[in-house]
Design goal:
Trans_acon_MeTrfase_C, transferase, binds S-adenosylmethionine, Methyltransf_25, 7 strands, Trans-aconitate 2-methyltransferase
């Protein structure tokens, strides 16, 4: 379902929040670091550079992503694991649980976060970033086409990404005894290329939708979506401006 090459297409825009999240993680010399939803693993390597004495494990449920990431594995230092985060449990408590742009695919954030906190070592840190743009025009347009009679029944069970309000993350994690640093950032990306917003969405949000539809219906779905996105995100001579809000949370046990 995941396509590493399409995801890499807007690499600079997608990398930036990773570094902005990492900059706020205060962990001196963790022994175990995990990267949940590690994707192609190139950013997992950045975690290994940041904490040279740590063993770093990237976890992802996509075979294609883990196959790509595994080429970057380093014996004793960096390994990759194929697993669904919904049930993933580390062998021992972890000092840093890091996740960039993945947890929004998982349901029930109150239960998920409580479980992740229970996996932390005594001085551990949970840091994650998720999109918080689920009411943006791009997503409203996808929902509009999902609701079309041609696709609605097939797509009804296909999961959507989700984020809780910013205040929820602060209150929930503080309630579990952690010190919380939570914030939103809105980027104005100026995307390059034809139908740039559609191309962006093809790397992420649309993957589960198109996987459920199959080739022919996918084409029909995209033919309906394309003009709607062109209208909402007009291209300019500079590129296509694309507002994107992301939610960041760093919660520390100390
Ligand atoms: C948008 S990519 C982010 C990849 C990487 N963290 C980065 O910043 O480049 C989201 C990743 O989360 C993974 N993912 C989604 N749901 C998952 C789940 N339930 N369990 C494990 N991985 C999951 C996908 O396979 C995908 O590689």
């Amino acid at each position: 379902m995941w396509n590493p090459a399409q995801y890499e297409r807007f690499r600079d825009e997608r990398k930036r929040p990773f570094f902005e999240l990492l900059a706020r993680v205060d962990a001196a010399a963790p022994a175990q670091v995990v990267d949940l939803g590690c994707g192609t693993g190139d950013l997992t390597l950045v975690l290994a550079e940041r904490w040279p004495s740590a063993r770093v494990t990237g976890v992802d449920s996509s075979e294609a992503m883990v196959a790509e990431a595994s080429r970057r594995a380093a014996p004793e230092r960096v390994r990759f694991e194929l697993a669904d985060l919904a049930g993933w449990t580390p062998a021992a408590p972890v000092e840093v649980i890091f996740s960039n742009a993945a947890l929004h695919w998982l349901p029930d954030h109150p239960a998920l976060l409580s479980r992740l906190v229970s996996l932390l070592a005594p001085s551990g840190v949970l840091a994650f970033q998720i999109p918080a743009n689920f009411d943006a025009p791009s997503h409203r347009r996808i929902d509009e086409v999902r609701g079309h009679p041609r696709f609605a029944a097939t797509l009804a069970p296909v999961r959507r990404g989700q984020a809780q309000p910013l205040d929820f993350y602060e209150a929930h994690l503080a309630g579990l005894g952690l010190t919380v640093d939570a914030w939103d950032t809105t980027y104005l990306h100026v995307l390059q290329g034809e139908d740039a917003v559609l191309q962006w969405l093809l790397g992420t949000t649309l993957r589960p939708v198109l996987a459920a539809l199959g080739a022919e219906e996918s084409q029909a779905f995209l033919d309906m979506l394309r003009p709607l996105l062109r209208a909402d995100y007009p291209a300019t001579a500079r590129g296509t401006p694309f507002r994107f809000t992301r939610r960041f949370v760093v919660a520390s046990r100390r």
